[in-house]
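Structure, all two chains, one model.
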Amino acid sequence: MTADQAYQWLEQHSRETVYLEAFSALANWDQATYIPRKGHPHRAQMQATLAKLLHARNTDPRIGEMLARLEGSDLVQNPTSPQAVNVREWRRAYALQTKIPERLAVELAQATSEGQSVWEEARPKNDWEGFKPVLKRVFALTREVAEAIGYTEERYDALLDQYEPGATTRQIEAVFGELRQATVGLLQRLEASPRKPDPSLLHRHFPRVAQEAFAKEVIATLGFDLEAGRLDTVAHPFMLGLGPGDVRLTTRYDEGFFSMALFGTIHEMGHGLYYQGLPSEHYGTPMGTEISLGIHESQSRTWENLVGRSLGFWRYFWPRAQARFEAFQGVGLEPFYAAINTVQPSLIRVEADEVTYNLHIMIRFEVELALLRGELEIDQAPEAWDAKYQEYLGIRSPTLADGVMQDMHWASGLIGYFPTYALGNLYGAQFFAQAERELGDLQELLARGGFATLLEWQREKIHRQGSRYWPRELLRQVTGEDLNPRYLIDYLNRKFGALYGV
Amino acid sequence: MTADQAYQWLEQHSRETVYLEAFSALANWDQATYIPRKGHPHRAQMQATLAKLLHARNTDPRIGEMLARLEGSDLVQNPTSPQAVNVREWRRAYALQTKIPERLAVELAQATSEGQSVWEEARPKNDWEGFKPVLKRVFALTREVAEAIGYTEERYDALLDQYEPGATTRQIEAVFGELRQATVGLLQRLEASPRKPDPSLLHRHFPRVAQEAFAKEVIATLGFDLEAGRLDTVAHPFMLGLGPGDVRLTTRYDEGFFSMALFGTIHEMGHGLYYQGLPSEHYGTPMGTEISLGIHESQSRTWENLVGRSLGFWRYFWPRAQARFEAFQGVGLEPFYAAINTVQPSLIRVEADEVTYNLHIMIRFEVELALLRGELEIDQAPEAWDAKYQEYLGIRSPTLADGVMQDMHWASGLIGYFPTYALGNLYGAQFFAQAERELGDLQELLARGGFATLLEWQREKIHRQGSRYWPRELLRQVTGEDLNPRYLIDYLNRKFGALYGV
């Protein structure tokens, strides 16, 4: 068999796997949107059957044989050619899938499945004693997984690398350290300022139908193709790309709060734009796939915050919002812009503002890193959590439900995943600064409705790259430098300094 | 390997196949309901990938080996035990899948896929010359399929048996002959009667929201579990069972016509009740599966017509309908009941009334049988079609779109399928007469809202039997006699004779 033939085999195997995975994704979407209540047990059986089939496909020893034929061949000489990129990523995925023993994978799947149910029951009851055993089990198994995957410096690296290829704990600690210091300082200045936005104007009555119509108007204007996607309602919003021409966005509505549906929708749309911008001719192979969760989050947070909560954006959309919502009659653009950018330390990550959000992420990162290292026991996690909230945000949760038990991530086995949320903000600010260098004043561009210009820049620089570069290399290719927290720090200081007059 | 082990292997293989098929069904449902327009090409690729995988599973030679170990073993001694039923039906399916050469299956799949697109384009243009070549090709390939499957008496039997196991052309010709004669006679008497219903009261304004609410009220009252199913809107309604606890009904709304959504919904609900009543402990094996299209249709037509268009049903529901629809203020039950039972020869099968519906089916059956036998050439089909409409229904289509080109079935390869629609009506009437013998006056029962009593009878006698008996045997088990068209004929004569005073 020639290298060409081996490549063709892998390509077809990969494409077919991705088509089959799309069925699982569709079933997930349906589970979150339209499935009848009594359909869940059967759906779980369906998913388990397909997962077993996919696992067998992904660990097929022929993948290893084909890769061995290809590695070192002429076909992969140019490391940024689609062929070389695919071979590199197929190897990465195959290594990961085959390094974890099946016994461990099954135990972890059981523990995390149980973990999610236990979390759902324990959280509203603040039942730490009920929750603790599953958390211990998940962390213990995750340590085993990290050992099985292997690492050079740090156990945590093995986990992180699954979500953010090439990222290291050492680098993240350094970057987060600088960001934390700057953020805590900024937060203190904002809190000390006598000038405060009035967020009450966001808590009037906003009919659901009008919210949905406005959200769709906004995302269509920003460049999301609604003929190649949908927007549905769910309890926990997400974006799900099923394939070329089919991107499912989701949101939720609160008629008493303007921000939830709109900014949530713009956030998911940012993920969706990345997905819609991938090179579809490479669909079914890594070259046509998103490179990392951090890069994904950089796109969603850019559209949600750097664009969607900017003054330029609202200079364009404010008259349109006023036409839709009676509650905004007589409200000026300036107070509205201030209201949507209110900074207020809070306990719940998913409701946090732009300034405090990263502190929530750092707390989780620091706690899970200490747990992984064995510097902290699960029993000590609640106290460590609360102490960090006190230190960074100046508040302390009265309940575990709003403290250490607020996120489902750990119980679901998503350990080593939280940093990607803050990395997304860091990448996003760095990309945005570069776009501004190349495209000129972005606030003026947004105020003119020139969203397509920004999107086309993202398309070319980021989306169409697929998995060509790992995140740090992509950052270097696009911005000419390594990850640099100053972009985010400067952006936050500038924007919120101006808003709060500090 | 013991027979027990062989059985367990087949059972697991069967269940897993059914779980995977459920993904395809979900994707079909999504294609008809919520998929974005641009998602179709990708969805076709997904479906093709899964179809290929399922074909490989269904023709896995190990199935044949396992069946050989089981056939004649103690495990299948009792022919109506779940084990024996499953082995019988696994053999039937495996034989069918392996008898058709892959080359032929692929050619037919291509021809019918193309056939559907060509039909969609050609029908509105009455483009017979454009449609004819694909129809010729599909019929030629279907004859090859019938030859590959094999038959004793008649080529058509091989096709029919796929949809209605055990049914034969000879039997259908006899039964249809009696039904046709009786129907044509009844129709002539009705047309000669001076007493006519006034259907215009069904063509007032019925708001979509009220129609949907009423349709859901009706099906919930009849016994459909809306926590284990849904009702959505599509262009061409269907019922799709995804698995236990998950049945998708669909309908369409016409605000200017009361009957379309409601009776369409009750029809699909009849299919759904059959599906919800299958023995879920046997899900994933034939024992937990519907036995035939004819039996399926017997359940949908029973609820749509024998129940839904009966006077007893409306004695219960008429005050409820009047409460929902302003258009029914001041309308009496009797004229309404007459209106929904208007008999009027028409060109379009899917809009036909209870009396003329079976004549539409017979025309298709007679034409496709003559085509299969080679007694008729495709070129002669339009004239044969029109002549039969003239003879049986006294009307002639001015266009091919409303004549021979009105159904997509032939272009999609559904040949040998039409008879099941009329068989459904025949089975339904025979079952209903038996239910009346056992339960007493059904019109009184329905007028009291005793729908659960009828449903429980169906559950026990029909639904819970799954694939235990082939249709004719099921009929014998339930009613004590073979298929007898007198039940349907007597029902139609009685009901419409009374309505039209003839």
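Residues 31 and 38 of chain A are 11 Å apart (CA to CA).
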